[in-house]
Specification:
This protein is α/β, with parallel strands linked by helices. The chain is built from 23 helices and 24 strands. It has three domains: 146 residues, Roll (CBS-domain); 150 residues, 2-Layer Sandwich (Alpha-Beta Plaits); 213 residues, TIM Barrel. Strands 15-16-18-19-20-21-22-23 form an eight-stranded mixed β-barrel, surrounded by five helices. A five-stranded mixed sheet has the order 9-10-8-13-14, sandwiched between helices. It has a four-stranded mixed sheet with strand order 1-2-3-4. The chain binds ligand C2E and magnesium ion (2 copies).
């Protein structure tokens, strides 16, 4: 990402209130000022975390941190001893404060703060222009800023295929939804092509993945060149591509595009000095004739593509009713979900959390699974969203809580030490009026101690009514339940709630742990979050640690514990029990 200097940033955003907090002009104190006067300044302005000290030429000399300064004066006699001293003669003034020119890049400033051990996180640093003092910036705001910019980068990663640079499934479906909505208004049609390469596996297996990747890139380029500018070409997964034609007039438009694609594929591809031939099978479907909803339309184009394959490949077919639909549509899923609870089809898996300093298991997270009678074991990504949209999450979430608490007690009966269990809570559950009461009665009924239950909440929760959130969290906390922020760093970027709410732990989102080699900025973010957690006395868990190098990074950044495939995938209750018993035989934890 391009580096942004503080100056450019300030110029660009000078109307933006967060920027004003990023760089605040606070009238500096002169080095000859008496400590008692400095104390008064702090007492008068409760929102000033640090005071800059300058000499008579307005050149900054250092910073006085509010906490250290005031704490010292609370001690007996310090008013008498220090009160009449000049500020520059005392040890309160931190002369190794960070002073940066306004032309410095924001990322560089963040790195300087991180490298300096983060002690400037709260007190911040001084900005100068031509060596003259112009303001102080708060380290927390700076962290907010780099996290937000990182999110823009994450958006790209989440919406584009890295190999072909085409939109991915997520973005494609989003655009398809928009085009469909527009076509309803304009009474036009949307055409969808589902393109699947024939025998692509053959190239991958025989020539290696590097070769396969080059083939996919070349195909992507060719599909793009066959399409109009207004069409959207996307890579859905593997060797599956889709093309959306907006405002198409009739089936003829799609036939023309299909012919053009098949024709262009006849030309050999030059890959790594070789000439290769590839063909494709295409299925098409039209909105609203075939379906007026994106996933349904996709399923139909997919079914048509299978017909094209069945017809000997290297051809295209249009969807006709009666073709086999390979993916279950949402309606079916929703109907099945409504019955799943009474049919006892949900199960909980548990993933252990390991403390790095001792290697001990410090808890586990309960993760719901759905044993679907036809589709097998489904992970929450396939159904949690639907349960949230339909409200089914309320009864299902209650079952999860009951089951997790019951299991905690079963493990104790089976001879394990009491092990904290974390349960995910959706916003909709949290906002139920009886939520606290429900949690309390489930805990009491199970017989477990509240201290062993942790509720995982996401940051999005804090965007709603702060007073209600605060009241509920306080009540839960007073009862003894622990509270954690899940997927920390991906959501709401205003961190002020951390100070207000009784939070015990932060779970650093796995997107910051993954791909450290490709995304070195992640290391800084993890370190910054760890330092932030430490400064607020919060425990930290890194999620999704898969490799030794990720573990090493997490360890060096000062994060206390980890959860991830490197130690264990989520396991059924009995397997987790054996896992824990086996590990506990070894005093030192080994992977
Ligand atoms: P989460 O709470 O962030 O849970 C962590 C997810 O990361 C789990 O996915 C876990 O299997 C996965 N994971 C852990 N370590 C690794 C790793 O090293 N590599 C990779 N690639 N993944 C790892 P899972 O079980 O599929 O759950 C997905 C999400 O579904 C959860 O994310 C949570 O938001 C939601 N969820 C799960 N169970 C419940 C539930 O009972 N209630 C609610 N409301 N949401 C739930
Ligand atoms: Mg979680
Ligand atoms: Mg998480």
């Amino acid at each position: 990402m391009k580096k942004l200097s503080m100056q450019a940033y300030l110029a660009k955003n000078n109307e933006n209130p967060t920027v004003m907090t990023l760089l605040k002009f606070i009238p500096p104190v002169e080095d000859c000022m008496l400590c008692l006067t400095v104390l008064e300044l702090f007492q008068e302005n409760s929102d000033i975390f640090a005071l800059p000290v300058v000499n008579s030429g307005n050149i900054p000399l250092g910073i006085v941190d509010r906490k250290a300064f005031i704490e010292n004066f609370i001690k007996p006699f310090s008013k008498e001893i220090f009160g009449k001293k000049k500020i520059s003669d005392t040890h309160f003034m931190n002369k190794s404060s960070i002073i940066v020119d306004k032309g410095a890049a924001i990322d560089d400033v963040a790195r300087i703060i991180i490298d300096a051990g983060m002690q400037h996180m709260v007190s911040g640093f001084i900005a100068t222009d031509n060596e003259q003092y112009i303001g102080v910036a708060n380290g927390l705001d700076l962290l907010n800023e780099i996290t937000q910019r990182k999110q823009a980068n994450l958006f790209y990663l989440a919406h584009y295929d890295q190999l072909t640079k085409l939109p991915n499934r997520l973005l494609f479906l989003d655009r398809l939804d928009m085009a469909i909505a527009e076509s309803h208004r304009q009474k036009t049609q949307v055409g969808l092509l589902f393109v699947d390469l024939d025998n692509f596996k053959h190239f991958n297996d025989s020539m290696g993945h590097g070769f396969g990747d080059k083939v996919l890139m070349a195909v992507a380029a060719r599909l793009t060149s066959c399409s109009r500018e207004s069409d959207t070409v996307a890579r859905l997964s593997g060797d599956e591509f889709t093309i959306m034609q907006e405002k198409t007039n009739c089936q003829d438009d799609m036939n023309i595009l299909c012919d053009r694609i098949l024709e262009s594929m006849k030309q050999p591809f030059q890959i790594m000095g070789r000439e290769v031939f590839i063909t494709a099978s295409i299925g098409t479907a039209i909105c609203p004739n075939d379906d007026s909803e994106s996933t349904g339309l996709l399923a139909k184009a997919d079914a048509a593509m299978y017909e094209a394959k069945r017809s000997g490949r290297n051809t295209y077919r249009h969807y006709v009713p009666g073709m086999n639909l390979y993916s279950l549509d949402r309606m079916t899923l929703e109907t099945d979900l409504r019955m799943a609870l009474e049919r006892n089809e949900f199960e909980l898996f548990y993933q252990p959390q390991v403390e790095l300093s001792t290697g001990k298991i410090v808890g586990n997270e309960a993760l719901v699974r759905w044993r679907h009678p036809k589709r097998g074991l489904l992970s929450p990504i396939h159904f949690i969203e639907i349960t949230e949209e339909t409200g089914l999450i309320v009864p299902i979430g209650k079952w999860v809580l009951e089951q997790a608490c019951r299991q905690h007690m079963i493990w104790i009966e089976n001879g394990l030490e009491p092990m904290p269990v974390s349960v995910n809570i959706s916003a909709m559950q949290f906002y139920q009026t009886e939520f606290c009461e429900m949690v309390r009665s489930i805990i009491i009924d199970s017989g477990m101690q509240p201290i062993y239950l942790e509720l995982e909440l996401t940051e999005s929760l804090f965007m709603y009514d702060v007073d209600i959130v605060l009241k509920t969290l306080d009540e839960l906390h007073k009862f003894g339940v622990k509270l954690a922020i899940d997927d920390f760093g991906t959501g709401y970027s205003n961190l002020s709630y951390l100070k207000r709410f009784p939070i015990d732990r932060l779970k650093i989102d796995q997107s910051f742990i993954r791909h450290l080699e490709r995304e070195p900025v992640n290391i800084d973010i993890v370190r910054a979050i760890a330092a932030l957690g430490k400064s607020m006395s919060l425990e930290l868990v890194a999620e999704g640690v898969e490799t030794d190098s990720e573990l090493a990074m997490v360890q060096s950044s000062g994060c206390g514990s980890v959860q991830g495939y490197l130690y264990s995938k989520p396991l059924p209750a009995d397997q987790l029990e054996s896992w824990v018993k086996e590990r506990n035989l070894n005093s030192v934890f080994e992977i």
